[in-house]
Amino acid sequence: MATTSPVGQKKPITVTGANLGDRIFASLTAIFAAVIILIVVVFGVVFTIGSWNAIWHNGLEFFTSFNWPDNGFDNPKFGALNYIFGTLVSSGIALLIGGFASIGAAVFLSEYAPGWLRTPLSFMVELLAAVPSIVYGFWGVQFLSGIMGGPEGVEQSLNNTFGWLPMFNNLVTTTTGRELKVAFNGRDILVASLVLSVMIIPTITSISRDVIRTVPDSQREGMLAMGATKWQSIRRAVLPFGQRGIIGAIVLGLGRALGETIAVAFLIGGASTLVGPQNTLLNRGETIASKFANNYNEISPADTNGFSSFLELGLVLFVIALLINILAQWLVTRSTAKSNKQTQQKKTLLTTVWKWLLLLLFPILVLMVSPFLSLAISLIIIVVWGFFKALRAYQVSMEEQNKHLPRPLELIANPDKSYNYRKFMNLFMQVLFVIALLVAIVPLAAILILVTTKGLPVLFQTDFLINDTSGRPLFGGAPTSNTGIAQAILGTGVLVALGSLIGIPLGILAGIYLSEYGDNKFGQLVRFTADVLQGIPSIIMGLFILTVVINTSLFVPGQKYNGWAGALALAIMMVPIITRTTEEILRLVPVSLREAGLALGVPKWKTTLTVVIPSAISGVITGVILGVARIAGETAPVLLTARGNDSFNGLNDQTPALTLIMYTYGRRPDTLSVDRSWGAAFTLMVIVLLLSVGVRYVTRSRIKASL
């Protein structure tokens, strides 16, 4: 998500005059900015129209049934309950684990870590965001599944120890009433959720850290001056001040978890039409996004009913992602505009109702997860929680009457009255924050080590980098028995280059409009839409292009999968990143530079092109690199459009890519396929990490130049 401009930065001046060049330039950039709005609108229209038949045919059974036929030729009804259930459960677990770890890591980085340690640790956390989801999924299959599954695995131990809890039960019930044992193979809802929790950590951590750093020092100093410990100042002053921004970050992380496709498709196992939603996490399942990846061969316009049902499934995911991102943007925007006046507002009926809703939120959430904990345990948790809340309220009431509870009850109601307790909690929470940071960093180290040790030796195999997967040399020659990934490297480069050729100009010109002319309602709409577009799951991009481009034979006749469609999907993905980065960088250019150009009689459009953009060129390049790094590691949209190939035959044919090599061969058990996937993973990681390091270098160079 894009960050806001610094507080106190003057807005770029806007000149409205009769200069024809200025009007043309402003209109041109406005057209490119309007394209962003158009994309989101067309998304909604295409999915609504395309799924209309399925909406009427399936009715409410779409949300209450878990029967999803292999095709719709016999006009059956489709049910998505298994996929909706899997999406909500896996995302909820990921948010529970990743959310706490992220906030802890953010607090440590902003409140505890010394300056010399904060920068490298923050960079390592940000590198997690650069790791492609396909690498997470492949790492999960090759490493994490082996630890979690098997007769001696963690999941079996959880079942042996906590099998009395429904969430760790090893039995599932089929539609016929028959009980089956789970496979314990490390590919289930629990493992997929663990990987998802790691994937959302960098998003939540980065935004939460930035929000916490905006909290005035006076908030901390005031608490410390009254004798509070470091943890008390964080809990009672820092976190409440930035709670809207932190909640917004968590909601954004939830959006990422809901839309994640490839990593989940690798690890969640796949749902069965004979087994409905179960209360055990050790059973295999499916999410909405992973359904598209695991069954992409079934998404065919020839199957009118089935294709419309897939579009309805995409519409559900699109609407969920849209609402979540709108909520996140609103929360984060409100947090940046928050002032001390908010703390001085008088209590109203609305705020009182809101406080009661927040008070009831915990027991409601506990009851919602009771199928996984058992109703008895859930009620015990609620009763204990209610006892402490009631005791605390009673203590406050007594103190208002200048009365006191017996000392033991007083300490139970408010443990902070004990100095030893406060001292212990201060140390305990500091340890927890360190552990939270390790939860964020250790997976990155594990991925880098495993990908390097497994993938680097593969690159030195004979002809691995010059032959394609069928053994033919990329640049001509007789086929050999030595297979490689040369066509995938070339295909990735071509797809990224073509996508960049489309996305970079569109994103930069839209960013120029927002920076130089966008201080109006239209600019606010473009800005908001760009942020929403950035949060839409990539699989939705692929499904959209599949429907609009491939099924209409827009580029290639015969409804044929092709590289042009894949590049267009990637271009759409990079546009909002470049747009928002360009806008923010251009807003940092001093207004005095613009005024100097205008004072010399230089038109605004020429001042923008010859003064403003050159002054911020390194930042613009940073945005471009971020966009390229994002699309270079994408799998889902390319899977539904380019499809992959054993050789590179041009963009009019199915086009190979490194991510598709990993997705195709990484799911096979034979050694040759696994080695090929490790080699592709290492190559992809080198490309993406070099781009990420390049962004860091360009950013640091820009900062040094401004000092």
Provide an overview of this structure:
The protein is mostly helical and 707 residues long. The chain folds into two domains: 20-50 and 486-706, MetI-like fold, CATH 1.10.3720.10; 81-336 and 418-448, Orthogonal Bundle (MetI-like fold), CATH 1.10.3720. Helix content is 70%, strand content 1%. It has helices at residues 20-50, 52-58, 61-64, 81-112, 115-130, 133-148, 154-162, 189-213, 217-225, 230-241, 243-259, 262-267, 288-294, 304-336, 349-368, 370-373, 375-400, 407-413, 419-459, 486-516, 521-534, 538-550, 563-587, 591-599, 604-615, 617-632, 636-641, 658-665, 671-706, and strands at residues 171-173, 179-181. It has a two-stranded antiparallel sheet with strand order 1-2. A hairpin with a 5-residue loop joins strand 1 and strand 2 (179-181). It is globular, with a radius of gyration of 27 Å. Residues 1-10 and 338-347 have low confidence and may be disordered.
Strand order of the largest sheet: 1-2
Total number of distinct structural domains: 2
Q: Which CATH class of the largest domain?
A: Mainly Alpha
* Low-pLDDT segments, ≥5 res: 1-10, 338-347
**Quick one: biggest sheet?**
2 strands, antiparallel
Q: What shape does the CA trace take?
A: globular
Counted by DSSP, the helix tally is 29
CATH architecture of the largest domain: Orthogonal Bundle
